[in-house]
Amino acid sequence: MSPAVGTGTPATTVAAVDLGAGSGRVVAAAFDGERLRTRTVHRFEHAPRTVDGVLRWDVAALWAGVREGLAALTAAHGVPGSIGVAGWGVDHALLRADGTLAAEPACYRDPRRSAALERAVAEVGRERLYAATGTQVAPISTLFALLADARGAAAERERLREAAQLVMLPDLFHHLLRGAPPVPVVTERTAASTSALLDVTTGAWARELLAELDLPAHLLPEVVPAGTGTGPVGGDLSGLLPGTRVVLPAAHDTASAVAATPGVEDGALFLSCGTWSLLGTERREPLVGPAARDAELTHEAGYGDDGGTVLLLRNLTGDWLLQECRRAWAREGLHLSAADLAALAAAEPPLRSLVDPGDPAFLAPGDLPARLRAACARHGEPVPATPGALARCVVDSLALAHGDAVAALERVTGHRAPSITATGGGSQHELLVRATADATGLPVRLGPVEATATGNAGAQLVALGELAGPADVRRLVDADPRCRRVVEPAARSAERWGEAAGRWRRLARRTAGATTGTPAAGGAREVPA
Description:
The chain is of the alpha/beta class. The protein is built from 18 helices and 20 strands.
């Protein structure tokens, strides 16, 4: 392969921090002018815990994991030229005027948000919420966390009053990397777009909506594009990382992953598989309107030239279901690795039991095996008796949810995608990939497992002048022979999966009706037959 752009020899190394909702990693990415090589130097797990009745993230544990990873990176690869953090969306932190935390960030699985959503719908309506931001009306959104604080207990209202600024989770860690200077800080566009506080059409904060809900718009920081530099690493990390620049990548991990997903520019759908499955298409303009709203599609910002792109997608519960099942079994003394569980699932007959992965009963941590079995019983599905049968139920159900999302995107955009490119840890799950190909009827290409870190590093290299622009990031990935494997739908599988899709659609509509009091609107749960 000839050099993509620039003269990156000797190799330029950047540090890509990838914070997922269940684990974090620090990745060294070296670009020599022809190839981008990534190596995970540190990986750590983390989880929220309940503090004073609120499910909160442990910022100290997350920050310790990042610091440990940066020490390992510099020991093995030297001081990086820059560092950027990409992480999960929707969650935020509140900073005081001196730059310190007013409280640890609440987790998007905190149950207070569901009540806040109901309150917002009662006050302004679902149509108004979606029209203002183009964001799916779901309890995980930042908007409902902010509303829960504003209408919550006295302690939460007091924390909100003493706050000077709201920052999204990745921005908090950029803030800490700079040495926690006093506010104001900035927020990167793709991270802000997950909040349900940003107008996807104008790119500005939806201040009129906040005024209607009596929420404090003065907390919202300046929105800046991916690639913005905020200065050198500071504080007590300046000795470890002298001269390293803090560069904001596409700070939402999905946006970074899509930035490193080949084929999307030619119409392929992206499927970012992790704790959540994000399946969608990249566009230049949003499609905000009743059709997208009723199809449960959301708009998020993507990484690109001229202000970036728009990602039209559906947020789907992903590997969280299997992760939480494994944790529940481990508490009972049954320790199964992800590979162990995948092998057990593969030995089970397909499409025997189905659930709706988006069932609100599955959102909070806890005894997921019991909840999954209860859902099967509630909907008249055979109740899985073993871990393998339960895992197979989850895999098949996720694949059918992917099929539902593909059908919704086709209906709203009027475009039939030629293929799907899957990235992230879930792309290594052979059974899930094959089931997704069968459920959607589309070939699934396997992209990079560490797509988020690759896209994160790519945006930094563009900011450093080593790559000319966002298109070069995908060209580098596209040239990697490891990203050439394609899984085709199985011959003669369409009829069997079509029948299962109808069954799944019926139970998914019952789930939606139980949640909202009405069936899913506009055929929002339709799956190709």
